[in-house]
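Morning run. Coffee first, then this:
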Amino acid sequence: MRIGLLLLLLAPCLPAQERKIDPTWLYRNLLETKEAGATFATDTCRYKPLFGEGDSEGRIVQSVSRFGEIEIAPHGNCQPVAYDREEEIYFVAKGSGVLHYGDEPRAMRQSDFTYLPPGVKHSIANDSGEPLQVLLMSFKIPAKIAIIPPNRHAKIVNLDDVKEETVGGHPTSVLYKLLIGSRNGKRDALDEAYVVTSFFLMDFAPGGTNFPHHHQAAEEIYLVLDGNGEMAAGSGMDGIEGRFPAKAGDAYYFRPNCTVGFYNQNKPGVKAHILAVRSRIPLPEDTD
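And here it is:
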């Protein structure tokens, strides 16, 4: 009788131990990611989703609609799209092409980036004989945020034209290029965004560190452009961060409050660069 009662009490615990819970961070590698469908995709415009729409765990992200890579074949093009309540960032990782912003065509080359506001029809095409690779980042704008009329002309900036600088509260072994920030800010190359609080490049010196930290009301994505090191992702009850080997093409998504950081190799002449974007999550007053 006692044995039967004990088994009955333990039984509800077994499924709970096997239950899968949502992770606090996600890992992907750009080279290993498979193509998936997208509204802008064509036979010559293909999309590799890392996070958000098209990814197997897309439900986990909150403010991020899409984060991935568009590859456009020589002389190919993507379908035009327009999102009433989404903002996007294009960053040309390789090649050159033409951005169509409304009715305006604008040339884009490697390391160019631009902000695409909600409501503007846009697409990108490849007018060259080489493949064009573009990093795409899309973010949802909560319904209670007022949207103002967009700029008539696209603003395009090249990474080389943005100065490197230190950021207060962060180690001087890392230099930052502040690319896109909030529309009420004045520090970034383009201060245009509603949800994106910071899109930036980190340049790590040998042994450079972005000390592990967290953001209570923001999601963050890191993409390793080059170099090798250790990514800090999450921590346990002992407060010690988890460290994972990181290489070019590795991408990490961090949920709010998740520990995030990076340690570059401490070898002479060894550098690392990470492209990162941070977006604020909808707060309770932003949702119905």
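Residues 23-281 form a domain with the Jelly Rolls fold (CATH 2.60.120.10). Good start to the day.
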